[in-house]
Design a protein that fits this description.
By secondary structure, the chain is of the alpha/beta class. Helices cover 18% and strands 28% of the residues. Strands 5-4-3-6-1-7-10-9 form an 8-stranded mixed beta sheet, sandwiched between helices.
Length: 209
Amino acid sequence: MTDNPDNPIRLYMSMSLDGFIAGPDDRPGQELGRAGGRLFNWLDHRGSDGRSGQVYREALGTGAVISGRRTFELAGRWQGDHHDGVPVFVLTHHVDDGDVPPGHARFVTDVEDCARQARAASTDRPVLVHGAGAAQALLRAGEMDELEIHLVPVLLGEGRRLFEHLGDQHIELDLVRRLDDRDVTHLRYRVRHRPEETPSGTTVSGAGR
């Protein structure tokens, strides 16, 4: 893991107040799950000069994409181009013989190698992360730098959660930006990678490694 504030690996994710990023039964034809579309109403303002427009333009200004395999498939593989022809690195456990992703996408089976390739490909721009599976893998590996959470004031009650399967890791976050807009609060957190001193003087690992 390499700390580089100018080239961070940054998750962008809409999330309900109770931690869901999709409603139940997310599948092809119902990619956001039942009632999951509620989490993306803020995108109606993505073309505005307001704060949601700013965040959306920042996302499209990223120089590479890391996606989980499930997200990639549910999105129809983005037809090989997520935005502006930037490379798309798809984290997956297994690649079938002859399965070649389209366009600018490629499969990667090792999370640290995936992070390394994405940082190199994005040069001096941030790397955009899509999907709960990819986010969890990067957090476990200590390769996630920032979380951009689009927090929506709704309780979905059930569905797909963003922060699961992290084991017993203790991961400290610093809030570095808050942007309030209509029907959403955009929260940017920086993941602490270096050990921090507790008030008692005990050294703990902020990245949970």
